[in-house]
Amino acid sequence: MRPVSHVIISTGVSLAVYVWLHSISCAFFCLFAGVLIDVDHILDYFFCKKRIPFSYKELNDYCKFDVEGKISVIFHSYELVIVLWIVYTFFNSRVLLGIAIGATVHLLCDAFANPFKFKSYLLSYRHYHKYERKKFYVDGFFKDKK
């Protein structure tokens, strides 16, 4: 899913959270987590290419069209979202609630909008497959990329 879509969706969810809870901190961190979770794409690029992407196009092309290599996107994982919700239940913090909601919404949007297999959002699944990029996409995705 494109970053602008995450900004729009996270803004809407954050506004709903503010109306529901009347908490600016919860709404802010919901927006913050819902958008900035994508920083792991930059980390993947850096570890794969050994340099920082200097333009959005460069990073976007890497994410969409680089069919070889590895991908970890460590923040895009069901396990992380589960841990966030567990930590929230222990500390009952509005900040943690906002982060958990934002991360959950981001992950669900990606899971339904991106060409990844649903189980590919398990970090343990990606680890088991040694982070090989081709293992995570839906069948037939790479046929038109060659």
Characterise the protein shown here.
The two termini are 22 Å apart. The chain has 2 domains: 1-38 and 93-114, no CATH class; 39-74 and 117-146, no CATH class. The mean pLDDT is 91. The protein has 7 helices and no strands. It has helices spanning 3-21, 24-36, 39-49, 56-65, 78-91, 94-113, 123-128. The longest helix is centred in the last third of the chain and has 20 residues, at 94-113. Helix 2 (24-36) runs parallel beside helix 6 and helix 5 runs antiparallel to helix 6 (94-113). Helices cover 64% and strands 0% of the residues. By secondary structure, the chain is mostly helical.
Tell me the layout of helices and strands:
Elements: H1 3-21, H2 24-36, H3 39-49, H4 56-65, H5 78-91, H6 94-113, H7 123-128
Helix pairs in contact: 1-2, 1-6, 2-6, 5-6
